[in-house]
Every structure is written in C-alpha cells, then in structure tokens.
Design brief:
Blueprint (H helix, E strand, L loop, with lengths): L1 H14 L12 H26 L19 H24 L7 H9 L12 H21 L3 E8 L3 H5 L9 E2 L15 E12 L3 E4 L1 H4 L4 E5 L7 E9 L4 E6 L23 E6 L7 E17 L5 E10 L11 E3 L5 E9 L6 E5 H11 L9
Antiparallel strand pairs: 1-3, 1-5, 2-12, 3-4, 4-7, 5-6, 6-7, 8-9, 8-11, 9-10, 10-13, 11-12, 12-13
Keywords: Hydrolase, Protease, Serine protease
InterPro entries: Chloro_Bact_Ser_Proteases, Peptidase_S1_PA, Peptidase_S1C
Organism: Cohnella hashimotonis
Length: 376
C-alpha cells in the first residue's frame, strides 16, 4: 500500500509544472543558490539510484548504452531543465541589468544615429521619437506661421458674374474655396459677398491672396491676429489669369507685420508633408495637414458663359481645403510657402490645388512693380 502511494506521489511530481516569473530584484547570488540546491537534489537522487541498482545484473545503473554512471532519466531531465532555466535566467537578467548593452545610453546613441533600438517590450525607440518629432515640427510650423495668416472679407454689390465666381462653373465640377454669400441684394449698399484667406509676405503690410477673393470688391476688410478691429485694405495689383492679387494694410501702431517666406516648390517631392492654414466656412485659423499628392497638374474651369479658364503647373494635395481657404498658404514642414490654395473639386474628397511658389515668385515681380518695399 505504501509502495503504491509512493508511486502515485512520484507520478504526481512528474506531472507538476512550475512557472517562473522574472523578478527584477533577483541577482546572481539567489540564482546561484537555487542552482546549487537543484544540483544537490539531483546528486542525491543519482546516489540513491546507484545504490539501489548498482549490485544487480539487471540494474539500470550498469547498462552502458542506456544510462551511463547510474543517472536516472528523471535526474538527467531535471538537470537539463535546471541548466536551461539558469542560463536563460542569467541571459534575461544580464539584459535587464544592462551588463552588455549599455541600456538607455545604447538606446539614445542608436536613436541619435537614426537606427532602430527595441526595448524588452518590443517598442522601437527611434520610430517613436521620429513620430513625436514630426508632430512637434507640424505644431511648431503652425505656431510660427499662424500670426501671418489673415481673413479677408469682400464687400460689394453682388452681380450675376460675381455670384458665379471664378471657379463657379458647374460643368467642370471645380469650385473656388471662397465661401460666397448667395443672398440677394436689393439695395445698392455694399454687403458681404464672401470671405477668403491671405498671408503677409512682406512685413510692411503686403498680403498675397487669390484674385477671385478680392474680385468685384468695393471694400476689403482684413482681420489680422493681434488687432481687435478689421483693417481696411487696398488693392495693389491683381492678375486674373494667374488668380493672384496683392493687397495692403497699414499698421495702426506702426509695428511691422509677421511675414512668411516663400520657398521653392520645385524642391518639394511627392509625399512630403504639407500644411494648409485658412478660414474654411468662417472657422478662422484652421490648420489641416496632408501630403503633396502630385505636381504639374493642369485643370480647366468651365464658366457659365461657356468660356474656359485653364490653369497649369498646380500642386495637388489631400490636405483639406474648403470654401474660405482660398488665398491661404500651403506650407512645407519648414514653414515655407510652397503654394497658394486656390481650387477644390466640389464632387471629390482629398483633392485640392494650389498655385506653386515657382509661379508666385515670377508673378510677384510684376505685381509689385513700381512699389517701394523694404524687401520681398
């Protein structure tokens, strides 16, 4: 009966599974003590097996090809498990204690070098840092560029031609993001016809926008960040073919205005991050982010009278551009203007267009001809 119980106990012990969890407080001494304890137990079991079967001819301890030197299968398997566990534990501990890798310093050096470093949780430090850097860079661009972006209100007497708008032709599906009011005007008094966006490109108060934003206006009012009341603006020059215009406001306090730098759209690549700032549907200073989808896009605008207006070399972006964004800047991740937002497809999503900086540079020379400015 006792022999039967002992066999059951031995079977149960063999079926037991021990689970070990890594504890950062474990050190070499505790692992070594555990290792020695398991080895002593295995040695005792080996001695017992040798004593039990060493004198008999059929004893397992004397079968050379089966189990040399009297080791039982259990003792060999136990020794193997102990060795594997200890070696694995030592490897994990050395990694956690940074005995060979240098830990955080290795991660910092690897990230600084632009390579990927994975910690024990599998998080790639370099990738996380890169993502954070992109978000931070975009936020910085908005903070720096936003004070130079203005809202333009167009007051005038609405006519049929102005109601249609430059991009108002229904045949081609293209529309201008101006956000015009379609209210009828029975009186001859100027009323708000629409709103658009512009930006200072010169600290003396010169603003670049679309020609269709200021078209047919009898009065222009510009809302500038930092000023409680809108400022009156006058038209310096305009080019309907290019859909560009320059207007100017005077500083009430004599201070210079913040100005944006016009960059080089030729250096922009498909897939580059781009940022649009404007006043869509009257929601002032709205930022949208996307990528540069294509370059050198030509589009044709079909007017209500049957005429067509063709635009070439436009930048295409999936950054959201809506009515009211017209004339606003399309910025790269350095905060440079690479385009002026000008048209969207009313029947599509994520398809907007901007006049490239390569066209703007040449146009400004003509638009500012005869005008005395500090710098361009």
């Amino acid at each position: 009966m006792n022999e039967h119980n002992e066999k059951n106990h031995e079977i149960n012990n063999q079926n037991e599974v021990s689970t070990y969890y890594y504890d950062p407080s474990n050190r070499v001494e505790s692992l070594r003590a555990f290792y020695e304890e398991e080895l002593n137990a295995a040695a005792a079991e080996q001695a017992a097996v040798a004593e039990d079967g060493g004198s008999g001819q059929g004893g397992r301890g004397n079968r050379r090809g089966d189990n040399p030197k009297g080791f039982s299968p259990k003792s060999i398997f136990a020794s193997f498990l102990v060795g594997a566990m200890v070696v694995g534990g030592m490897s994990v501990m050395s990694d956690r204690l940074n005995l060979f890798t240098g830990g955080a310093s290795a991660a910092a050096e690897s990230a600084a070098a632009g390579s990927a470093y994975s910690d024990a949780a599998g998080i790639t430090t370099a990738s996380v840092s890169a993502s954070s850097n992109v978000d931070e860079k975009i936020s910085t661009v908005f903070d720096q560029a936003n004070p130079a972006v203005v809202e333009i209100e167009n007051y005038g007497v609405e006519s049929q031609s102005s109601a249609n708008g430059l991009f108002g032709g229904r045949g081609g599906g293209w529309t201008d993001p101006r956000g015009q009011s379609m209210q009828s005007q029975q009186s001859g008094e100027p009323e708000l016809m629409g709103t658009g966006t512009g930006f200072f490109f010169n600290e003396d108060g010169y603003i670049l926008t679309n020609e269709h934003v200021i078209a047919d206006a009898t009065e222009l009012k510009v809302t500038v960040p930092g000023y409680d009341e809108p400022l009156a603006a006058k038209v310096v020059n305009a080019n309907a073919d290019l859909d560009l215009a320059v207007i100017k406001v005077e500083s009430p306090d004599g201070k210079k205005f913040p100005a944006l730098t016009i960059g080089d759209s030729d250096q922009a690549s498909i897939g580059d991050w781009v940022i649009a700032i404007g006043n869509p549907y009257g929601l002032d200073h709205t930022m949208t982010v996307g990528v540069l989808s294509a370059k050198e896009r030509p589009i044709t605008i079909a007017e209500e009278d049957g005429t067509e207006h063709q635009y070439k070399h436009l930048l295409q972006t999936d950054a959201s551009i809506n009515p009211g964004n017209s004339g606003g800047p399309l910025l790269n991740d350095k905060g440079e203007v690479i385009g002026v937002n000008t048209a969207v497809n009313a029947e599509a999503q994520g398809i907007g267009f901007a006049i490239p900086a390569s066209v703007i540079h040449d146009a400004l020379t003509d638009l500012m001809a005869g005008t005395t400015v500090t710098s361009l």
